[in-house]
Every structure is written in C-alpha cells, then in structure tokens.
C-alpha cells in the first residue's frame, strides 16, 4: 500500500531495486550540463587569476589605489601606502605575499557562503550535477561530518567579511585623492573602486547568515519593528544573492586588475578632476 | 467464496475531505477506534480546491455580525428550502469550528489587531469568510491532516503504534455498506493499488464522500466526485433528499478544452470584474430578477461607484447569486452572443491596473497564464457555467447527522442534503464540513459505544459484494448486433447526457429523454468489460464508479422532472417561477427494489422511486428573524400568518 | 483548432520490471501532458495506471518525470515541447514503483509522522489567538505546499542514496519543522522540545547541501532553500555551533 511505513533499505539510487526499472541515470533532454559547466569554468578562472595575483606580491599599489587583494596589508614587506591600510602586525618574519594573510577571510566567507556551496557542490563535486541527474558518488553524508560540518561557521566569516568590507570602504575613500595624496580628486580607478565596494557591501549584506542575525532568528517580527524592516531589506538583497556573488567576484577581480595595470605602468589612470 | 482481509473498528469514515477528517478526529477523541477510507492519497481530497473561505460569524471585521445574520443569509440563499435546524446549528457553531482550527496550527490571514481576517462574499451581509489568500481549502485539509497525525503521535507514545486508534486507509474504495438487518455492520471495499478486497467491520459508518460533479461534462469537480456516498446510502436503504438541486458556478474556464470547467473564483467579480457578451455589452443589467430589483444597480455608473462607496450605491448585477448569473450567461450564449469558445467575457484587464490584478488574484493570474496562456491583466477571460456542487444528498437528522432509516449510518459534508436548501452560498460549504463533520463523528462514536455488541457481518453479503466488484472482468457479451463497450466511452456519454438534458435549464421532454438514455446506459454498462488485472487498474475503477454515477444521475433527473417550479439550483423552462407551495415539499429518492441485485433490475422502470414529503414548519423564533414582507415572497399565507403574534415579542427581544 | 500526432514514451511496468513503451497519440490545442495520458487510457491503454485529482495544480497528485524533470503532469503544457520531439514520461524515480506512473510515496507519510506537531500555547483558548500578519507570513508561505513530493523526489540525498532515507526527512518535512519553529504561537520550546536542535539531530538537516533542486521543482514557487532550509540551518547553528549565542543565553538565564 502507499501507506507502507518502512523505507525500503537497499543501496543504489535511481537504478536501485524497487525503483522503476530505467537504466539511464537521467532522462533530461535539455542542456542541463551548461549551468554547472559555466559555474565551474567561472570559478576556476577566478581561482587561477587570484592565485597568480595573490602570490605575485607585486604591482598591488599605485597611489592612491590599493588592490583589494592586498588590503589591509599586515606585514612588514608591504608596499608603502601613505595613510593607507597597511599596519605592520605581522612583523618581518612574514616572507611571502602579504595578500595571503588577509585573503583567507573573504575567501573563507565565499567558500562557506550558501550560494557558493551550491555552485561548487554542483559544478566541481557533481553532488548533484543538476536536478534529477544522478550523482556519481556511492556514499553521501552531506554536511553532517568533518570537514563539511565546518560550513556551519559561515557566520564568523560573515563578521570578518564585515571588517574587510569596512577596510575596503576606507580604501575607496582614500581613492578620492590623487597620486600626490591631495584630497578631492577622482579618476577612473575611483569609479572602479566605488562600483566594487557597493557590490561587496551588497553581497556581504545579502548573506543568509546576515539575514538570520538581523531578524530571521526572531519569532515575533511584530515586537521588533526595526529589525523586521532590516530583515525585509536584507531579504530583498538576499533574493539576488547569486547575482551579487558573481557581480562582486568579477568586480573585485577587475578592481585588482585595474590596480595591476596602473601599478605595472601598462595603463595610465585617467583623472576626472 | 473470496477470502478477504477483515478488521474490526468502532467507526469507519468513508472519505477524507474536510467533513471526513473532522468526523474522524471527533470520533477518535470521543474514544472510538476510527478508520478513514479515501480514494486518493491522504491530503489530496477535493476540499483543497476551495478558494474563497470559511463562512463563520465571528464578527472580527464587522462587529454587527452574529449567528442570526448568518442564518438569515443562508436561508435566503437557499430560498428557504434549507433544513432550518441545520442552518441554525451551522450558523451557531461555525465560529467555534474555525477557532478550533487555530489551536491545531492553522494560520489564517489576520486583521490589523491580530484576529482572523474575514472577507466579503456573494450573499453574505457582512465580511464573514475566514481565509488564507485564495487557498483556504488547502489550509483546512492540511490542518485536519496534521491534527490526525498529531493524534497518531499521541497514540504512538501510548501504544507504540501510530495506527492503533486512528488509521487512514488511503487509495481504497468502498463499494458497499454491509448491514445486519436494518443496522450497519461494516463496509466492503478494495485497495486501488493491489485490487485486494477488504472488510472493515464497524457498527457505525460516516459517509463523507463529497459530490457528484463527474456525472456532468463540464465540472469543477475532480475525478473522485462520482457520487459514491450517495449511491452507498441508497443501496443501504437510506433516502436521498432534493437531488434536483445542482449548483452551476457561473464562471468556469471554457478554453482550452482540457481545463474546461475549472473554477474562476467569485472574487474576480467581487474585485471588479465585469461580464460582457460578444457585442461588448454588460448584459447582466438585463437579467436582474424582480425580487432583487431594489438591491442591485440600474446603471453601469452606479455599479462602478459601489466598489468605492458601497454605502451609497447598489452593487453591480455581476454579483447576483450564482444561479442567476449562470442562467444569464447560458441565455446569452444561446442567443448567439457568446465568446468564440462558447462562453462570455469576464474582464478585469480594463478595470484594474496589472499590478493590482496580480496582487489581488494571484492564483487566477497563474491559472490562466499557465493553463490557457491568457494574460488576464491584458485580455478578457472566457468563462461559462460549470457544475460545481450538489445541494441535495443523503437525508439526515439535523442534530446527529444520522442517515434516516439506517441505524449506524451517518453523513456529513456535500454528500449530506438539506443544509443549503436549493442553493448554497459561497463559503458555507467549508463551515458545513466542519460543523456537521464534527457532529457526525461525535454521534457515530456515541452510537457505537452505546450499542454494546457488534452487529455481525453477513458472509453472504461479502460474497455478493465481491462478485459485484469483479463483474467488469467477466462482463456480459452484448447481443449480436451491439458492439462491446468500454467504460470510458460510457462515462463520456453519461456526462454528455446529463450536460445536454438535465443541465442548467431543464425541460420536461428532455428529462424524459435523459431517463431513457440512462436506462440504455445501464444496460450497456453490463457489457463494459475491462482489460488487465486488478492492480491499480483505472479502467476497472471507472467501471465500478459507473454504477454510482448512473444511480445518482437517475435521482437528479427524476427529481428534476418531478419538481414543477424553478428555485435556486433547479430551473425549469416550462415552470420558470418559484412556487411557494413547493417550498414545503421535499423529494426523497429511494431504491425502487432495495432487495434486488442492481444489475438484474428492469432497465425500463428504473432503479429509483420518488416520495414527496412535507417539511416541518420553521421554528417561530427563527421566522421572527425576518421581515414579514420578505417571508411572503417565499412562504405560503398560512405559514406566515401563524407566528405573527409571537414575532412581536421575539423582535423586541432581539432589539435588546 | 489545430491538432497533431505526438510521439510519447511512457514507462510501464511494476516492481518486477518494465520499460518505456512507445505511443503515437493525438494532441490538441491547449492540452497538458495529463490530457495525453488520459487519452492513452481512453483509447490505447485502458489499464495505464496514473494518479491525478484536481487537474488544476492544487492537489499535487499527478507528479511524474517528464523528459527527465520532476513536474506536475497537469501543469505541463504540450505547447512547451517541440512537435517533433518525443516526450518521455516516467514515474518518480526516488520512490519504489507500484505500477506504471504510480509510485509508493509512503516515505513521505512516514516522515510526516516523525515531525512533532504544533504545540498549542497552554494559556490560550480557542478564539483567543492573536497573531500579526507579519508574524504568520513566513509560515504561511510554507503552508502553500501541496505535498506533490516533487522536492522529495528530486533531492539527491535520498534520490541517489536510498540508505539516507532513514536519517533524512527531505525538504518538505524540514520545511515543516521550519514552519512550526517560525509559528508565532508554537509552544514546543516550553514543553522542552527544541525544534532547532532536532532539525539537525533527528531530521537530518545536515544532509542538505543546499543545492536548491527542491526550490527549482516546486510548482508552488516556495523558496524552500532560502526561506526554510537555510534559516533552519542558521537556527541550528545558534544552538550547536555558536558559542557567543550559547554564552549569551547562559548569562541571560542566570540573570533572569
């Protein structure tokens, strides 16, 4: 009967014993592989680019712009940035690129982000590759054990990401100077930084953990009208979390690339005023 | 003969819609071991289709509302043919039934001060319908379903078995109520999935199987609505009441063909939708009957002003009771002023901004977008009448929901007759389910407890029932010049017959023709064989359901032929007026030959006989709730004069 | 009105075995896949087993997989397919097959029973409930669920791993836990039932890797992942992985 209460315990998935006998792992006729493939390609491109830039340890500062990959710069070997975000917390023993120190936070934030999790579980791990397409793994425990149970620390990375976003905001304010540190100027780089910081904030605030913290955890919105309004605002951003995740990923890479171009002398920052 | 699985229960509920589940909850809470049997999966019952709301005079939105006003509206809607005691109980108990749902986890839409919000609906004087957007029926079913699960969890904690006191047998069909002499002794049925037969032995059976819409071609009802409960009661010897009253909802979809009949909610008109014919005319202004002349707008301008200022203007005639609008649409189409697919135009696109339409009518917007590829914010809908609800049903005692003449048999919900008179108001069906579902469960449990010994199940009846159920596999061979039959074809012919000959507008000759056609179909049904085996075989299931549809259709046709007046859901072209003498008359359908085997009965004389019965006069204090001028429209002279003296006193008490 | 002949492959069989059977069948304007299945029943395969009820996307009975995608047959219009295309209809592939397009969905009813029901507040009688619209909005979204079980079918946790069925409630019933946890008057906490904790400990929330297929297939458009599962995960984090919240609640309990 359809009221059978014992789940049939046999191994195997869609081709398992009591399921309808269909040998194909899936019967989808659309281009289901396109989305995971594009996601994987996009993420891979960013990983390659950011690895190169993070380890390059060069061309990350061109006054008044500091690459977001290297901000804040916390080692002694950082480039000199006047009033910029370099605080020598790590001293001289840090020998490799100072980007590594700070990148761990935005990277961890994105790595444990609910959107990126979906993206790489599907794109890289094929778990599942697409809806109703059988996954290749024999066993699956999801996020129940180590290491994936650590995804639950996402909210700490969110707190850290708030700090980083604050510092990048500071960088953007500094970008309203010229090469000789005079205030009240603006160049194309300033615009690039502005767009980037807006997207970074939008992405950071659209985070599911943020949505939970500002109001989602409440049982009675009616008793907390301000937090309810904040929750609604974050909810609106949250609905576009995927879009913001990609947009801010691209913008941060572009901001870094812009600094690279200017710092390496390949391009001259056009000044507006 | 056949070995069938047998189990013992105290109360068996047939049907798991709102009424069935509410009955089961009450029976179980009264201490009876209760089984629920349903044709579909648990939680899929037709109740989920209800959109508007549950009518209950809670007075949350307008404090002027109370049960007396609700009672009055219900009687007016039913044109005073209602079993007044049922209407009274219904109006009194509906608020408690709604509040109780909240304690089981239901989440209705709220008012500003946190109470259950209530909305306006056709025929209700005040905003009265508790609702959840336009999916109130789903909320009702889910809440009852979850309450049942919660009772099962309780039982599991105590006995280690979820199903020790309350069990749902899903995807099972009951084909016979078994009896011990006059009394109920159990039910016989089959599992749809395996085709296996089973008997549930029980002293009390509650029938809550819903309606009969699948006997008509264009209907808003789902496949389950094959009149099973009506037929079960008839076959068990219980009479059906006033089966001629069938409600045709004025606005069903007419295109595409595959969705013909699916409901377009009344809220579309309530929110400003207007009906136009192919000439672009708002034709409803030509169809306001005299009794409603003072209450409806005379011009389009006045009707339009009503939406903004209902106190100083009269409502547009699009909001006349369902029967009036359905007849008007029917007349327009017949006069050649219909839309391309045989309906009329229902337009909101020129009345409201697209944004407002999408917000106020979300499910209608999606329904048309997804099923008909019509954007209702940009173009008019095509709509026409669709068979929606049967007011008639099993004749029951008002207080106990006990079926008349068969001890142990109870009925609640659409399958029970009387509550709605000749026409049901929107919103009154969900409250009906809850009020009388509870009463049926309560009294069934009491009856079972008081009975002492269980009535024994007669093996001969079980064998007969099994043989009857297996007959489609060894159908009779038709005579030489007749082709073999297929249940699907017969079903289509039955639907066409009822649609063409016993539909919205009825004529004597056509109904006689329908009776002939039904007799013919009954004979041919015996030749309708099915292929395959008993495991989940829809052809076989349909062949078995045909018996019920044929019985119920004959009841409708015979009663409709007999009632020589027009009232509510029964319109005679040859007797277009309401007749006050008929108000007191109920028509009871009984099986003509209750002892005989159905298939053997004579095709010509039919299976149903009619009995006229005079109703009990309406209690004086209830009559006193109406103005005399109104009563004379419905009641005969002597009925009105009688309580005159009393009314003075009652009336003044009401003032206090 | 134009009609054409479409090619269909419909899975027929039972738990013993079966396969895709070819059909050629007439299709008319405005029809949905369920109409075609009904036409097959009436003309070519009278014993073709299929579940359906309302035919308007409101009951969630006619769930199947059409061209490999979990969908309601009554809400899948034929016009979305190319006329030359062969349309494949199979039963839900996450559940044991009964016959043809009908599967044993008992798993879902078992899971429904494992979620503790709404706990009414002890101090409020019927008619005394006061709830604000903004407080019921979230749970109301989840109560739109028509229990078509497409989300349960598509979820790879059980679709691809039968052995997880014991430990994992599936999106539909994790959403039910979320619905109750967000219900403004649910008094489970007062009776010692912590829904946030049990979501992970008893209903297998940790198995969900938020790959969103449940949201993708939901015919009611419920944002299952974003509005139910992730908030529930965050609530579980409050209980189990957030020392700040833990410390805060300890202090507050002591001081009050």
Can you lay out the helices and strands and say which pair or pack?
The complex is a heterotrimer of chains A (273), B (656) and C (256).
Chain A (H helix, E strand, L loop, with lengths): L33 H23 L4 E2 L2 E2 L32 H13 L2 H10 L30 H21 L13 H18 L2 H9 L8 H14 L2 H23 L10
Antiparallel strand pairs in A: 1-2
Chain B lengths: L4 E4 L2 E4 L3 H12 L4 E5 L15 E2 L11 H11 L6 H20 L14 E2 L9 E2 L5 H24 L6 E5 L1 E9 L2 E9 L5 E5 L2 E4 L20 H9 L3 E2 L4 E8 L13 H4 L3 E3 L23 H9 L13 H13 L9 E4 L6 H7 L1 H11 L8 E10 L2 E2 L14 E3 L16 H24 L7 H12 L16 H15 L3 E2 L1 H18 L12 H25 L8 E2 L7 H4 L1 E7 L16 E7 L5 H4 L4 H7 L2 H5 L2 H12 L1
Parallel strand pairs in B: 1-10, 2-3, 2-11, 3-7, 11-18, 19-20
Antiparallel strand pairs in B: 4-6, 5-6, 8-9, 9-10, 12-17, 12-21, 13-16, 14-15, 15-16, 21-22
Chain C lengths: L2 E12 L2 E12 L4 H11 L19 E4 L2 E4 L13 E5 L6 E3 L2 E2 L2 H9 L18 H10 L7 H5 L1 H4 L11 H12 L12 H7 L11 H5 L6 H17 L2 H13 L1
Parallel strand pairs in C: 1-5
Antiparallel strand pairs in C: 1-2, 3-4, 3-5, 6-7
Helix pairs in contact in C: 3-6, 6-9, 7-9
Concise structural overview:
The complex is a heterotrimer of chains A (273), B (656) and C (256). Chain B is of the alpha/beta class and 656 residues long.
Properties at a glance:
heterotrimer; A: about 270 residues; mainly alpha; two-stranded antiparallel ribbon; 8 helices; 2 strands; globular; disordered N terminus; C: about 260 residues; alpha+beta; two-stranded antiparallel sheet; 7 strands; about 35% helix; elongated
Question: Can you give a write-up of this model?
Answer:
The complex is a heterotrimer of chains A (273), B (656) and C (256). Chain A is mostly helical and 273 residues long. Chain A has helices at residues 34-56, 99-111, 114-123, 154-174, 188-205, 208-216, 225-238, 241-263; strands at 61-62, 65-66. In chain A, strands 1-2 form a two-stranded antiparallel sheet. Residues 1-10 of chain A have low confidence and may be disordered. With 656 residues, chain B is α/β, with parallel strands linked by helices. Helices cover 38% and strands 15% of the residues of chain B. In chain B, strand 8 (172-180) and strand 9 form a beta hairpin. Chain B is globular and about 70 Å long. Chain C contains 10 helices and 7 strands. A 5-stranded mixed sheet of chain C has the order 2-1-5-3-4. A two-stranded antiparallel ribbon of chain C has the order 6-7. Chain C is elongated and about 75 Å long. Chain C starts with a strand and ends with a helix. Classes of the chains: A mainly alpha (273), B alpha/beta (656), C alpha+beta (256). The interface between A and C is large, with 64 and 71 residues.
């Amino acid at each position: 009967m359809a009221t059978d209460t014992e789940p049939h315990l046999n191994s195997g998935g869609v081709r398992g014993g009591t399921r309808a006998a269909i040998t194909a792992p899936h019967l989808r006729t659309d281009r289901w592989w396109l989305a995971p493939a594009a996601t994987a390609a996009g993420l891979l491109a960013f990983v390659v680019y950011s690895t190169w830039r993070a380890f390059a340890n060069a061309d990350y500062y061109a006054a008044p712009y500091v690459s977001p990959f290297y901000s804040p710069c916390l080692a002694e070997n950082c480039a000199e940035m006047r009033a910029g975000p370099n605080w020598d917390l790590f001293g001289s023993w840090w020998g490799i690129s100072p980007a590594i120190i700070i990148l761990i936070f935005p990277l961890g934030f994105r790595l444990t982000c609910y959107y990126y999790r979906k993206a790489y579980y599907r794109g890289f791990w094929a778990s599942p590759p697409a809806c109703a397409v059988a996954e290749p793994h024999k066993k699956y425990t999801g996020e129940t054990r180590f290491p994936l149970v650590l995804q639950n620390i996402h909210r700490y990375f969110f707190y850290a990401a708030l700090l980083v976003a604050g510092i990048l905001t500071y960088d953007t304010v500094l970008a309203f100077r010229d090469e000789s540190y005079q205030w009240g100027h603006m160049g194309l780089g300033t615009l690039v930084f502005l767009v980037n910081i807006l997207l970074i904030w939008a992405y950071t605030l659209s985070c599911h953990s943020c949505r939970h913290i500002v109001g989602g955890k409440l049982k009675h919105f009616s008793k907390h009208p301000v937090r309810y309004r904040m929750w609604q605002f974050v909810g609106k951003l949250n609905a576009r979390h995927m879009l913001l995740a990609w947009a801010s990923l691209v913008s941060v890479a572009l901001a870094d690339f812009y600094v690279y171009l200017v710092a390496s002398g390949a391009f001259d920052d056009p000044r507006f005023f | 003969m056949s070995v069938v699985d047998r189990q013992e229960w105290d109360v068996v509920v047939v049907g798991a819609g709102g009424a069935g589940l509410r009955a089961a909850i009450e029976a179980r809470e009264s201490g009876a071991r209760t089984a629920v049997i349903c044709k579909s999966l648990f939680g899929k019952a037709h109740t989920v289709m209800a959109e508007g709301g549950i009518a209950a005079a809670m007075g949350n939105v307008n404090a002027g509302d109370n049960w007396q006003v609700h009672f009055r509206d219900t009687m007016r809607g039913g044109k005073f043919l209602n079993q007044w005691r049922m209407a009274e109980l219904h109006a009194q108990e509906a608020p408690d039934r709604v509040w109780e749902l909240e304690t089981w986890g239901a989440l209705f839409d709220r008012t500003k001060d946190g109470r259950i919000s209530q909305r306006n609906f056709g025929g209700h004087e005040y905003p009265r319908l508790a609702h959840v957007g336009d999916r109130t029926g789903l909320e009702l079913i889910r809440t009852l379903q979850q309450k049942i699960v919660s009772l099962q969890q309780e039982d599991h904690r105590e006995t280690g078995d979820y199903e020790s006191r309350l069990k749902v047998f899903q995807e099972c069909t009951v084909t016979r109520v078994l009896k011990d002499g006059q009394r109920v002794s159990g039910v016989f049925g089959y599992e749809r999935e395996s085709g296996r037969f089973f008997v549930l032995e029980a002293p009390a059976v509650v029938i809550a199987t819903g309606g009969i819409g699948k006997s008509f071609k264009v209907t808003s009802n789902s496949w389950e609505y094959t009149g099973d409960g009506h037929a079960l009661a008839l076959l068990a010897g219980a009479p059906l009441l006033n089966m001629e009253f069938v409600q045709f909802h004025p606005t069903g979809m007419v295109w595409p063909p595959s969705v013909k009949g699916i409901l377009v909610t009344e809220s579309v008109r309530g929110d400003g939708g207007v009906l136009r014919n192919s000439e672009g005319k708002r034709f409803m202004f030509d169809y306001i009957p005299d009794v409603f002349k003072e209450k409806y707008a005379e011009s389009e301008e006045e009707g339009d002003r009503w939406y903004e200022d209902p106190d100083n203007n009269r409502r547009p005639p699009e909001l006349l009771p369902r029967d009036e609008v359905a007849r008007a649409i029917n007349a327009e189409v017949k006069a050649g002023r219909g839309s391309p697919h045989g309906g009329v135009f229902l337009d909101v696109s020129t009345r409201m901004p697209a944004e407002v339409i999408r917000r106020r009518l979300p499910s209608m917007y999606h329904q048309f977008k997804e099923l008909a590829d019509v954007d209702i914010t940009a173009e008019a809908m095509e709509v026409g009448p669709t068979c929606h609800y049967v007011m008639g049903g099993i004749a029951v005692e008002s207080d106990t929901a006990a079926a008349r003449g068969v001890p142990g048999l109870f009925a609640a919900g659409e399958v029970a007759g009387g509550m709605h008179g000749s026409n049901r108001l929107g919103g009154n069906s969900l409250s009906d389910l809850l009020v009388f579902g509870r009463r049926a469960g309560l009294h069934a449990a009491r009856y079972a407890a008081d009975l002492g010994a269980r009535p024994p199940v007669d093996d001969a009846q079980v064998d007969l029932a099994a043989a009857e159920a297996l007959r489609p596999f060894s159908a009779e061979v038709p005579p030489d010049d007749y082709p073999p039959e297929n249940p699907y074809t017969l079903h289509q012919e039955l639907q066409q017959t009822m649609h063409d000959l016993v539909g919205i507008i009825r004529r004597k000759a056509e109904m006689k023709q329908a009776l002939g056609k039904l007799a013919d179909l009954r004979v041919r049904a015996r030749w309708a064989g099915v292929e395959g085996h008993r495991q989940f075989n829809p052809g076989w299931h349909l062949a078995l359901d045909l018996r019920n549809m044929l019985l119920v259709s004959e009841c409708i046709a015979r009663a409709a032929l007999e009632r020589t007046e027009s009232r509510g859901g029964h319109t005679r072209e040859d007797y277009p007026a309401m007749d006050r003498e008929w108000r007191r008359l109920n028509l009871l359908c009984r099986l003509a030959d209750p002892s005989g085997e159905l298939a053997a009965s004579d095709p010509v004389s039919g299976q149903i006989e009619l009995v006229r019965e005079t109703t009990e006069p309406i209690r004086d204090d209830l009559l006193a709730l109406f103005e005399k001028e109104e009563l004379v429209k419905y009641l005969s002279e002597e009925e009105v004069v009688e309580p005159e003296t009393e009314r003075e006193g009652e009336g003044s008490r009401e003032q206090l | 009105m134009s009609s054409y002949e479409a090619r269909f492959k419909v899975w027929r069989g039972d738990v013993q075995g079966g396969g895709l059977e070819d059909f050629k069948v007439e299709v008319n304007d405005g029809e949905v896949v369920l109409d075609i299945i009904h036409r097959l029943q009436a003309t070519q395969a009278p014993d073709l087993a299929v579940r359906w009820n309302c035919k308007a996307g409101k009951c969630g009975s006619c769930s199947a997989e059409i061209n490999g995608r979990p969908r309601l047959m009554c809400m899948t219009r034929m016009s979305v397919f190319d006329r030359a295309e062969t349309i494949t209809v199979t039963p839900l592939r996450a559940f044991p097959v009964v016959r043809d397009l009908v599967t044993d969905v008992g798993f879902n009813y078992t899971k429904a029973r494992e979620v503790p029901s709404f706990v009414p507040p002890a101090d409020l009688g019927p008619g005394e409930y006061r709830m604000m619209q903004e407080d019921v909005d979230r749970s109301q979204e989840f109560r739109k669920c028509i229990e078509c079980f497409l989300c349960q079918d598509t979820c790879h946790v059980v679709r691809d791993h039968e052995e997880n069925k014991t430990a994992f409630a599936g999106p539909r019933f994790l959403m039910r836990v979320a619905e109750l946890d967000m219900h403004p008057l649910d008094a489970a906490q007062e009776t010692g039932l912590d829904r946030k904790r049990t979501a992970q400990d008893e209903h297998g929330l940790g198995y969900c890797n938020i790959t969103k297929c449940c949201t993708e297939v939901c015919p009611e458009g419920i944002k299952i992942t974003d509005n139910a599962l992730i908030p529930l995960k965050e609530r579980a984090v409050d209980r189990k992985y957030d020392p700040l919240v833990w410390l805060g609640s300890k202090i507050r309990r002591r001081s009050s």
